[in-house]
Amino acid sequence: MKNALVVGLGGFFGCIARYLTGVVVLRLFDPPVFPYATLIVNVVGCLLIGLLGGLTEDTRLISPEIQLFLIVGLLGGFTTYSAFGYQTWTLTRDGQMLLAVLNVSAHIILGLGAVWLGALIAKQI
Predict the structure, then answer these.
(1) Can you give the three-state secondary structure of 69-104, one letter per residue?
(2) What are the tens digits of pLDDT across the range 62-119?
(3) 79: left (phi > 0), else alpha (psi -120 to 50), else beta?
(4) Which of 25, 39, 92, 111 is the most interior residue, by most CB within 10 Å?
(5) CA nearest 37: which of 47, 55, 23?
């Protein structure tokens, strides 16, 4: 239960950071012609998860509870794309190129397909 609360607290702050990033970007680019906020959140999230992942894989610089708070909670609330990026990078680093390509392809094809299906279902309701 403690771990779930730690993740939830991190997610709370991550979601707020995502929202505030969107607010700032909308003020800079009004009207928005490109989803800059999503791009910024995803790229920054990937940078941070790469940094934190690198600091925690082979060292004990960050406790397991802080890792849960920062990586699963904060970055998970900020963007799940960061987890996708890190997991794909890990597969590539470990020489699992086929799985890395499959991971990217599945996320794009299934993700866009799920958006299409959800929109289709919504029209039927």
Answers:
(1) HHHHHHHHHHCCHHHHHHHHHHHHHCCCHHHHHHHH
(2) 899 999 999 999 999 999 888 899 899 999 999 999 999 999 999 999 999 998 999 8
(3) beta
(4) 25
(5) 23
Up-side HSE of residue 88: CA atoms within 13 Å toward CB? Answer: 16
User: pTM of the entire structure?
Assistant: 0.78
Longest dimension (CA), the chain: 52
Q: Domains of the chain: which residue ranges?
A: 2-80
Q: How far is 39 from 89, CA to CA, in rounded Å?
A: 18
Query: What residue type is assigned to position 98 of the chain?
Result: L
How far is it, in rounded angstroms, from Cα 49 to Cα 27?
Answer: 27
Collapsing DSSP to helix, strand or coil, 60 comes out as coil
